[in-house]
Amino acid sequence: MEARVAVLEEIAAATKAAIERVDRRMEGLENRIDGFADESRSLRTEMHAEFRALRSEHRADFRMLVGLILSVTGAMLAVMAHGFHWFP
Q1: Distance CA 36, CA 48 (A)
Q2: What is the reported pTM?
Q3: Dihedral sign, CA of 68, 74, 76, 82?
């Protein structure tokens, strides 16, 4: 009977050690997941800031191009009006 109890105690000790190892690994994984989540949030914030800056640059470029096209079109019409004597 005592031999059986000793075997059960040995099994319990091994099980306890295994559970402690699993707990440590789970805590390590939870810490890594939390780190990934924090890194993901910071990257997302950084990407949004870069996107806003890029969008602002594109708007400025678009406005400049529209202004340039309108200026060239106006100049062309002025030259045509002068050449065809549309204005006295």
Answers
A1: 18
A2: 0.52
A3: negative
